[in-house]
Amino acid sequence: SGAPIQYGNADQCEVEVLVVSREDAKSRQVDNHPALLRTVRDAFHSFSEKVACIRTFVGKVHDVASTEYIWRRADVVIAPHGAALAFMLFMRPA
């Protein structure tokens, strides 16, 4: 679908978690992507008092400007290995 999946209120986010999806790829899709999102959500709610917003990134639906914006906001990235990880160059320094 490409629409961002968000858990948490964007106005209250203390931690931005970006989960890279391969739903637009012809191969190597993550079969359990919905379960992965639930696990990440549950982990943040169980182990952190901070409000986490979890978003899904589908590369083909973004141009360079929106890709930079999304990755610059991310505090945590969860992704399969691959070229999309080059977008880490847009992230803020730790």
Give a verbal description of the structure.
The chain is α/β, with parallel strands linked by helices. About 25% of the residues lie in helices and about 15% in strands. The protein has a three-stranded parallel β-sheet, sandwiched between helices. Helix 1 links the parallel strand 1 and strand 2. The radius of gyration is 13 Å and the shape is globular. About 20% of the residues are buried. The N terminus is likely disordered.
As an assembly, this protein is single chain
Mean pLDDT, to the nearest integer, reads: 81
Kindly state the number of beta strands.
3
What is the radius of gyration? 13 Å
Overall geometric form: globular
Strand content: 15-25%
Strand order of the largest sheet: 2-1-3
Distance between the termini: 31 Å
Query: What percentage of residues falls in helices of 4 or more residues?
Result: 25-40%
Uncertain stretches: 1-5
Total helical elements: 2
| Order of helix and strand elements from N to C terminus | EHEHE
Largest sheet: 3 strands, parallel
Instruction: Name the structural class.
Output: alpha/beta
